[in-house]
Design a protein that fits this description.
With 244 residues, this protein is α+β, with helices and mostly antiparallel strands. It contains two helices and 13 strands; from the N terminus they run H-E-E-E-E-E-E-E-E-E-E-E-E-E-H. A hairpin with a 5-residue loop joins strand 5 and strand 6. It is globular and about 60 Å long. The relative contact order is 0.18. The N terminus and C terminus are likely disordered.
């Protein structure tokens, strides 16, 4: 009996050791997808790695307003929320949202800073799923498709893998909004049934739009550079003609 237990524990340890690690992309001031650090002024962050149904209605819509990972500097301490609207999905023992039969649909409310004219917003969302996959073309912010998107990683779980097979996929989508608002709505859904939503993160940053004078100055510098380059090319051309 002890030998059997030892073998089981060894196999379990081996299985756990090869599980893919969550590759969340943390905001960085030098990362073009972000351009800020968490904790900067007018940034916000919320994320789930464990989902819990606060509605508690069997067969009803799944609703969670308590993200485990929240930005300490969010607008007024407001938290993001996520709702599954198709109905019939359940939180499984691992904390994922899953249904073997329902094509899940999700709505996320992400509070932001409404700073009025002269400011813009960038929002970046990150997804991790197992089994079947999301309908990536259907991801939207207030009905708009992402301005940029990227598959971060993909692991083949095999026919007998966690969740019955399929893939573990980590995906990123982001938007550049030329305005600000108090709330944004992110919608996304499964491409088919048997999607297990494992994690979801949303980051945002509100920054000032450059003053028109700054843009004019930058444009002027660019024109000066073109003019100097053009004169240099003409001069080089004349020197070649003389030498010939």
């Amino acid at each position: 009996m002890m030998r059997s237990s030892f073998i089981f524990c060894s196999l379990l340890s081996c299985f756990l050791s090869v599980q893919p690690v969550w590759a969340e992309i943390v905001p960085s001031s030098i990362d073009s997808r972000f351009g800020w650090m968490r904790g900067d002024s007018n940034t916000f962050f919320s994320g789930w790695d464990v989902f819990s149904d606060e509605d508690g209605v069997v067969g009803g819509t799944f609703f969670d307003t308590t993200p485990e990972l929240t930005g300490s500097n969010g607008p007024g301490g407001q938290l993001a929320s996520i709702r599954e609207t198709a109905g019939g999905t359940i939180p499984v023992g691992s904390g994922n949202i899953y249904s073997p039969t329902v094509v899940s649909q999700f709505v996320v409310n992400a509070p932001s800073y409404d700073l009025g004219p002269g400011f813009k917003t960038r929002i970046v969302s990150q997804y991790r799923t197992l089994g079947s996959e999301l309908n990536y073309a259907g991801i939207a912010l207030n009905g708009a498709a992402p301005d940029f998107a990227q598959e971060v990683s993909r692991v083949d779980l095999g026919a007998g893998g966690p969740g019955g097979g399929g893939f573990l996929v980590e995906y990123l989508a982001g938007w550049d909004v030329s305005a600000t608002a108090a709330n944004y709505t992110i919608t996304f859904g499964a491409a088919e049934s048997s999607v297990s939503l494992d994690r979801f993160f949303v980051d945002g940053s509100v920054t000032a739009v450059p003053e028109p004078t700054t843009l004019v100055m930058l444009a002027g510098i660019g024109l000066i550079g073109l003019s100097v380059n053009s004169r240099r090319q003409r001069r080089n051309g004349c020197l070649k003609a003389v030498s010939q």
